[in-house]
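Just curious. Invent one:
>
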Amino acid sequence: MSERRVLIVDDHEVVRRGLRDILSGSNFKVCGEAENGQEALEQTLKLKPDVVLLDMSMPVMTGLQAATKIRQLAPETKIIMVSMHDSPQMVEESRTAGADAYLTKMSAARDLLSTMEGVLNKGSN
């Protein structure tokens, strides 16, 4: 399987670094990073990643706002919302905004790679 390109979006460097570390050695390549939703939108249009890992709560433009715009402008890009909140309401808001999956930061180390494979494989059947 070829490498899949990933954009990591979070306003905290330590979280971005942690997600990068989880992805290292996998068939996912980090093609870029962003610190807020506006940068996420710009980088998605420029870099055309296969997957965007998108924090929900960020300055300038929230993850929900960015997901809505990314879904409109780059519908082929998969969006995984990554949040510290473990709430059914947040999951529903993410889905409504266009996210393909929702992952808590607490479960990311365990579930990130399988979640990414799942959203990518869902579209290829």
